[in-house]
Amino acid sequence: MSGAPYPLHAVLSLAASGVPVLPLRRGKVPFGNCRSCAGNACGGRPNMKASGPCRCPGVCHAWAAATTDPAILTSAAWASAWRQAAAVAYHPGGAGLTVVDLDDAAAVAWAREALPATRTVSTTRGEHWIYQGTMRSVNDVRDGVDIKSLMSYARWLGPGTGPMAALPDAVRALAVKEPSTARPTPQAVTVPAGFGGGECRHRTPAYLERGIAMAEQRITEARSAVHATVYRTFLAVLSAHGRCGCLTDAHVTRLFAAAQAKGESPRHCTDAWTNARTALGM
Question: From the centroid of its chain, how far is CA 271?
């Protein structure tokens, strides 16, 4: 398993403990779909129960490729991916877990005040808080906080420390509500400089630039539920930047371009943006 961060016996041991695993390529992202599976042309997800007709033997379906099957993990079809792997990931929902991904020190400080203590794993900039139980995965539930459980993956950084608590209502309550099914009349979205008129809490332009870049990346890397990902990303950007004078037409254009590159129509982009503004009372 040359080039992989874990020896094969360690990956197999992790899988044997009931944790579905998969390799990640450079940038901590899954391997892309093969030609036969691109655009969900295969009609299903491999290595998952009741997955549909897909018979792809490769590791090309993001979180849904995660498996505990040693025959698949050691197969020739996965060998190339393991050789290129930059990290090992797992499907928390498949292991009956929920990961609260705290991206920085501020998010960790918030969690220590707001959430019940549980098993923790240190990350490069923050921590993963791991709870027993599953829920839907939601990104950007607040600044620097993502929830990874069902239909998502998290990087494996070790078993962590401390006892694991049951998934609390405080974490479930963080999930962002889905947009309304009522679609507003499409309209041009213009966000001039000074939009919102509120006090700007951003100390440097770099904070906004990092937020927009991360939002573009989140949309670009969406492997499924693109509509929901676009909406939640727009909601997060507006929540963080929509009430002060930072957000401009150029920023919105970048977000719309990322969404349209994933197949969203201009109308879908407009509707998602309008629904997000409505949800935030803007």
Answer: 22
